[in-house]
Amino acid sequence: MRKSARYKLLNMAFKQVKAGTEESWVDEEVWRMELYLSAGIMALGLLSLLAVTSLPSVANAVNWREFTFIQSTLGYSALSMATVHTLLFGWDRAFDPAQYRFHLPPTFILVLILPLAVLLGRLALFVPCVARRLKQIRRGWEKSRHIRFTLPDDGCRNGLEDSQSRVRSGQ
């Protein structure tokens, strides 16, 4: 444990004894700490698995589909868990004015900018209109680069001319 954290813990315990507080159990802080630690442990586990599969000996042992799944899907899952871990750490600290020393936000807020941008960009790719076009591109579809101009034939009708002539004639 860091010296500053140990000092804070001892200082808080001394203040509680001095004030005569017998029960110091705060449900919100306990839940926040449990969730924070659990998310951190899961993120560390996912990142460890991701690191092991990046080793050349392991990467050569798996096929391309498994490697792609691990590096992309598991990578985004690990990034999401690490982001949740950081968000849980700053549960109520983000809105505490005492945390903004020199009018700068706390470091955990600054650290979240890039991961949240990546995750929001990934979510933007799941929008149906973008996902459909991306799926077509992955399957080899290419939009034609050339514009073709064609003149309609004399007998080319779209069916509206017939219905308009019926309305005029009273049919």
TrEMBL record:
Transmembrane feature ranges: 35-55, 67-88, 108-131
Keyword Transmembrane helix attached: yes
Any Gene Ontology biological process: copper ion import
Domain of life from the UniProt record: Eukaryota
InterPro entries in the record: STEAP_metalloreductase
Gene Ontology MF annotations: cupric reductase (NADH) activity; ferric-chelate reductase (NADPH) activity
KW Transmembrane (keyword) present: yes
Keywords: Membrane, Transmembrane, Transmembrane helix
A GO CC term assigned to this protein in UniProt: endosome
Protein name: Metalloreductase STEAP2
Organism field: Larimichthys crocea (Large yellow croaker)
